[in-house]
Amino acid sequence: MTLRQRHGGGGVLSSPRSNSGRSNREEAEKASILLRGRLSSPTFIFQPLCHDSFPDSNYSKLKFLISASIKEACNNSLLLLGPRGCGKKAVLEIVLEDLLLECPDALTVIRLNGLLHGEDASALKEIARQLCADHQLSFSKTASFDDNSQFLMAMLRESGLAHKTITFVLDEFDLFTQGKQRLLYALLDAVQSVTSQAVVVGVSCRLDADQLLEKRVRSRFSHRKLLFLPPSESEVQRLMNHVLSLPMDSSILLDYAAEFNKKLQDIFAHASFKEIIQTFLGSFPTVMHLKTFLFQAISSMDLDLGYLTLKNFSSSISCIQRQPKIQALKDCSVLELYILVCMKRLEVKEQNSYSFNALMREYKSIHDSFQMSDFYSQQMCLRAFEHLLQCGLISFLDCKGRSQSIEFRSVKLLVSSAELILGLKSHISCPALLHKLAS
Amino acid sequence: MGKELSPQSARRSARLCSAAKHSNENDAVGKEPSGSCCPSICDLVYGEEPISFDHLLSSFPGRSSQIRGVLQLLGPPNSPMLPVLIYGGPSTGKTSIILQLFRHLSRPFVYTSCRTCYSPRVLFESILNQLSLHRPNEDNGYSSAKRCEKPSEFINLLRDASVGLVKSLKDKTVYSKTKLSGVIDGNMVYLVIDNIDLVLEWDKSSSILPFLFSLYDLLKVPELGLIFISSVSPDMFHSATGSLEPLSIYFPTYSDEDMRQILMRDQSNRKLYSSFLDAVLGPFCRITRRLDELSTVFATLFTQYCKPLGDKQAVPNEDMKRRLFSHLQPHISHCLSETFQITEKVPLEAETSKTSGLKRGRKMLGSSDHSNELDFHMCTSARYLLISAFLASRNPATLDASLFDSYGGSDGRKKRRKISEKSKGLKEAEEEESLMKGPGSFPLERLIAIFQCLTSVAEDPFEEQEDPEGSLSVQSGSSALASTLLLQLSSLCNSNFIVKGGSCPLEGSTRYRSMVSEDLALKVAKSINFPLAKYIYRG
Predict the structure, then answer these.
(1) Residue B391: which domain range?
(2) Which of A167, A199, A227 finishes a domain?
(3) Is A352 touching B (CB cutoff 8 A)?
(4) Is A174 in Cβ contact with B436 (below 8 Å)?
């Protein structure tokens, strides 16, 4: 039976009350879809960290700041800083969601992203578009920069009069600082006036993001910063529990969900699972990595078996801990390995820059002293050299000089010598001479 | 070898089939609620009949773990997925496996390649066109559905288009279960972006790449699955401030055993081909492990291998294998040194055309033929010009006077001696520098001066007999000379023997650079009996 047929056969709710193996598979499929949905949602995994019960958490602080400016009709500006994947944006989204539930009429959210709206003109246009969409106004695509900024100022004034807070979320805040910072100036300047009621929230993974601001912009910024850190080990445990446990009140069979959760707890308690988590956190500390780790584990779940096993997690960690350089080295042909070793020897000789021609001289000298069997013409070596360039094991030193032909441009090795030796060892048909030459 | 063709043919067939569908499935699909007579959602599914999982596995030898891996990440129908990056060297079956996988799953997908979509705008518009089921044709003046250049516009349009598409997919699965359940599975739409490594070479790659990789988070449409295909490893995409890393699946190059299995496919005489592979696969795999290169070489080598055989279906015995192998041996060694040049790889073929000769010259490394004769035609003055360009690139301009001036000959020798007295380390450094710098550039005047010196030096009667026209043009020495010379120069430039460099910042005139290797230059000199070695300055 093919997978497709099986999938096609599994109707949504065909026989929910039978306990045979077939329905087990159906339940497993449903569970897998549910868990995948949780992981692909940007905020779900962060929910355990967002409770009013922790007054010191970033969630509580952020909620207090924004709700204060709603209730007291004041302006505010702050930066959320921290490494990528630690939930800056997710926590902010949860806060905004909660506040929108509490007071839906008093809050408008404008979301911008530095990747998309780094230029002032496109940012203003997007602000105007979102404001128009929020207030059921018609948006003109052809409006000029000036029109849009006037519109923004007018809207800020109007919403200040109506006691409505506009929250500007500037994701990838550092990218907004690249140009003349006119948008930032306009926003932060508006925040200074008493007539408006706005909050500007910058989100950035650069801890020095406020240093990137111009003087006139920096003096208008409140210098409130919230730092987001990777989760602690106990928090990770809590997050995993939150994401992977099946709910008891969904369309999934109750028996199955209970069994699934019980097995999950068994895995969590297992000593080797703790070891896996330890090694995982050693190299990947953030929640984003935890997400990919769990996603990989869930997608490798055997649907016929229907439950997560320890093996899913161990295979997932081996998937994540890939070493692309070693893999690429394994794929090289013998001639390509020779070229890499020649480059390494040139680097050991402390030649700070060398080109393909220098490389060929080294190759010939190796051939002369060792009489190796793998001696090929320069043309073949050039071809192999191009392959290495393509797979990213070596690269040109400078991006300029494209007019010059490949042989004369200086190159550098992109693998460390330890990686090279490791790669040579794991290569199937690496000649013994190369091990000797490389070490 | 059949496999090698499959990515292209699959891509093409996907497109062809969707085009064909347009005409013959109109009546079947046209009655759908949202269905107009234009392309329908069904076009987003792989055109042909779905294939079984076993067939999929058997058509890609050595790839079962990768196929399973991708299938697991895609998950059961209607399950959201995180972005996936598929990477591996060229010709490892990335694209064809993904396309065939979607044929197996019969889920709707959109395929774009950054090779055909060479700029952000073309890429964005191609994705939007396919998602909004718009096909540029004669009626709409081959225009796109939406004009969009900036990522900020694209993201809004893409969100609208995919939400609309997913909605209509959901409607269809609810309302017309009978008709479409066989055609489309699930209401996820997948976006496949191929050759994403080419974006690295775009102008705005530093902003476009992070944008593409964070597309999923920006869109917030969980029903749109993203699949990136790249031929370089994910660490090439790291940017300064980092970005979200997609899940990745690695396609390694094939092992020797898999390679044999793939090459054996579609062979009529498997025994014969197997014995052929015994002879060639080992040595060639030491040079390259890329299947596309190997298969092209083997195709021509195999015809050579079969030449002594009368009967192509013969089953080879040990004796015959040995005989065939000894026949093939010279061809193998030739192929090994000739970078798989297919056009004229057989040394026995004496007949070589001018174009192929030029092609070889374009390799800039000289041909490895051992005969004295050049294997391409070139008139004598062009040969002189080639040599003088080579000298102008090779020698420092300060030495020109001492080398070519008959009075200054002694001076030049003195200079040379002086240099040889310098310390060895300095000399090595200089040599290194010249290796690094490559051929030097020179202005046109210097080239003409050297050319005239050379032609006046080599005034032996033999040359005049051989090519009176060339010497005539040399001796006339007026505007006629200059014009023919310029003609020759431009033809040499066109055939890439000489490259036009940037203009000189002081004088503003164009500078040239000779791309001829020393071997080739010596050979050209030999063909006109010119003692080139005497004139090359060796530091």
Answers:
(1) 380-535
(2) A227
(3) no
(4) no
Q: What is the pLDDT of residues A27-46, one digit of tens each?
A: 888 889 999 999 988 889 99
When comparing pLDDT for B204 and A419, which is higher? A419
B430 in the same domain as B465: yes
User: CB neighbours (10 Å) of residue B163?
Assistant: 14
* A216 and A267 both lie in a single domain: no
3-state secondary structure labels for all residues of B470-481: HHHHHHHCCHHH
The number of distinct structural domains making up chain B is 3
Residue B35 at interface with chain A, using a CB cutoff of 8 Å: no
Residue B224 phi/psi, 5-degree rounding, is: -105, 110
At B77 the pLDDT is 85
Residues B28, B353: Cα–Cα separation, whole Å: 56
Q: Which of A227, A253, A285 is the last residue in one of the domains?
A: A227
pLDDT at A133 over 60: yes
B290 vs A contacts (CB less than 8 Å): 387
What are B313's two structure tokens?
A: 């279906």
Residues A304 and A208 in one domain: no
- For residue A122, the enclosing domain spans 52-227
Cβ separation B241–A84 shorter than 8 A: yes
Q: Looking at the complex, does the CB of residue B200 fall below 8 Å from at least one CB of chain A?
A: no
Domain membership flag for residue B156: no
CATH number at residue B105: 3.40.50
A126 contact B CB<8A: yes
What the block records as the tokens of B482 is 């200059």
Rounded alpha-carbon distances, angstroms, from residue A424 to A333, B148, B390: 11, 48, 41
ipTM: 0.88
Same domain, A391 and A277: no
- Distance (Å, whole) CA B52 – CA B73: 19
Q: For residue A99, what pLDDT band results from cuts at 50, 70 and 90?
A: very high
Confidence of residue A7 (pLDDT cuts 50, 70, 90): very low
The predicted-structure confidence for B345-379, as pLDDT tens digits, reads as follows 444 433 333 334 334 443 433 344 444 556 677 78
Q: Is there a single domain that holds both residue A347 and residue A371? A: yes
Are B337 and A382 in contact (CB < 8 Å)? no
Judge if A198 and A260 occupy the same domain: no
Q: What is the pLDDT of residue A173?
A: 92
pLDDT band at B39 (very low <50, low <70, confident <90, very high): low
Three-state SS annotation for B218-286: HHCCCCEEEEEEECCCHHHHCCCCCCCCCEEEECCCCCHHHHHHHHHCCCCCHHHHHHHHHHHHHHHHH
Closest CB to A391 among B76, B89, B438: B89
Whether residues B76 and A300 touch (CB distance < 8 A) is answered with no
What stretches of A158-279 adopt beta strand conformation (E)? 165-171, 198-204, 224-227
* Residue that finishes a domain, picked among B207, B230, B250: B250
Instruction: Pick from A96, A283, A327, A398 the residue to mutate for testing the B interface (most B CBs within 10 Å).
Output: A327
